[in-house]
Amino acid sequence: MLIEFPEGMHPKNDEWYSVTGELESIYYQPFKKTIPLLKVSSHSKIAKPDDPYVYRQY
């Protein structure tokens, strides 16, 4: 998912955050399609989850 961070927020690799914000859509030229965009309004650093992967539920 494409995420737009607030000005001044520069997360590094392997840092984990809990975020809230508004979900919008944007036309993403590299994919030539509309995709979701999360505009972050607040955030807090968290510990790495026990299982950091997302699984599809059928």
Give an overview of the whole structure:
The structure is a single chain. The protein has 58 residues and is mostly beta strands. It contains no helices and 3 strands. The protein has strands at residues 2-4, 16-28, 33-46. A 3-stranded mixed sheet has the order 1-3-2, with no helix packed on it. β2 (16-28) and β3 (33-46) form a beta hairpin. The chain is globular and about 35 Å long.
Q: What Rg, in angstroms, do the CA atoms define?
A: 13 Å
Going across the major beta sheet, what is the strand order? 1-3-2
Describe the global form. globular
- Determine the strand fraction and express it as a percent band: over 45%
| Helix and strand composition category | mainly beta
Q: How many individual helices?
A: 0
Uncertain residue ranges? none
Order of helical and strand elements: EEE
* β-strand number: 3
Show the helix and strand layout.
Elements: E1 2-4, E2 16-28, E3 33-46
Parallel strand pairs: 1-3
Antiparallel strand pairs: 2-3
Descriptors:
single chain, 58 residues, 52% strand
Briefly summarize what is shown.
With 58 residues, the chain is an all-beta fold. Helix content is 0%, strand content 52%.
